[in-house]
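Example 246, ligand zinc ion.
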Amino acid sequence: MLAAEKIKEWLGVPLGLVYPETCQLCKTRRATARDGFVCGRCWSHVRFIRPPFCRRCGLPFAGELTTEFQCTNCHELELHFSFARSAVAAKGVVLEAVHRFKYSHALWFEDFLAGLLVREAAPALREEPWDFIAPVPLHPLKLREREFNQAARLAAPLARATKIPLNGQLLRRIAPTATQTLLTREQRAANMKHAFAVRPGARLDGKRIVLVDDVFTTGATTSACARALRSAGAAEVCVWTVARGL
Ligand SMILES: [Zn+2]
Ligand SMILES: [Zn+2]
């Protein structure tokens, strides 16, 4: 169920009576629950990721490249997923919505953000068979503090749209990691390497898994998750995120 509908159900009233029908990003134009509380003008600033991009990490490349390529980042890093894709650039309105959704509990952005992911990821995922969708987990301490896992909230609508089963229990975050924003790419990778584990007893032999997160930055987090899944027998792990840090 979508966040807006859930709130509506709790309260038993039309959502417009609870939230003013105003865009929650610019706070000036009209936007309803149905619009995800984001107006047409703010929507027009969303930048979808389009080819050409690195076939491995999905980094968009400005230019008229017609052949497949792999970016220099991917040559330097050992990545454990087969490919990563993102729906949109983590800039402007999207970045603001992600931050407010995640850090300020602005759950009304869930429909907007999940909508971007579903729109781009669902058609691509339908082209190949996938066994599970697994959200990147939060450490239990972080989960208690934030009260929800943003990756799990975004993965659920994608699972419904693609009919790929959601498995939120597959991965566990075993090491609480401090915020990564001030670390270098190498430090992030080292920090993350042993942060995740697969639930004991999970049978993943030959499984093809879609990992979901909100933002892809260096790939350190998703690669560490993919590493854990692959060592538990998964045949392939791909990554889909709503936004891509550029
Ligand atoms: Zn707006
Ligand atoms: Zn790359």
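Summary: The CA atoms of residues 19 and 146 lie 22 Å apart.
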